[in-house]
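To whoever is on call:

I kicked off a structure prediction for a single chain this morning and the downstream step that reads the tokens threw a length-mismatch warning. I double-checked the sequence; it's 207 residues and nothing unusual in it as far as I can see. Pasting both halves so you can look.
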Amino acid sequence: FIIVTLYFLYKKNDIKNYMYIAILALSIILYQITLSRTGFICLLIILFLSITLKYNIINRFKCISFLRYLPFILGCGIILLSLLYDGNNQVFIILDKLFSGRLYYNNLFLTQMPISILGVDMSILENADLFLDCGYVLLFLSHGIFVFALFMYYTYKILKGINYRTDILFYIIVSVLIYCITEYFLTNILINYTLIYYNKFIFEEKS
């Protein structure tokens, strides 16, 4: 996923049609090996949106600009769903299956760990049976409500400042946000390289 999105970012709209086919084939092969459903879906989204950008089809969909609010929708939505999770409710059971059991584990962490403005030490909950694999819940607990809200705000501001009609970076950031529903690397700059653009935004704001 990271290599493919870096390639899209480097080539912009200068990608040959045969490369789309090659990337699609590679994505299918990698999915068969890793079984990473979210990663596969995100790659398909990037492929589709890259093609629409290349042929100026994206301009027909003005509602796309609504995606700039995705940080708030996903961040708050995942936290709320996880807190409200009820293992006896059929709707939550179905949703939990879609998220491969992550709602259940998110709920355990959110209900067993103290929620703090400045975050808590994650090692205080030492239970090998608990598995936290959601970037939003991890950010919310480990860095606190303040940093969580600040991160969502800055992500929104960055998306708002990118021209979604021409710049693939907009959709790469969106795909990372979607991916981190089921992955932990939301704030890991070694994997989530889009965090580099957060620094650019902060320095521009100060200047």
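Update from on-call: the warning came from a stale cache, not from the record. Cleared it. Sanity check on the structure: The two ends are 34 Å apart (CA to CA).
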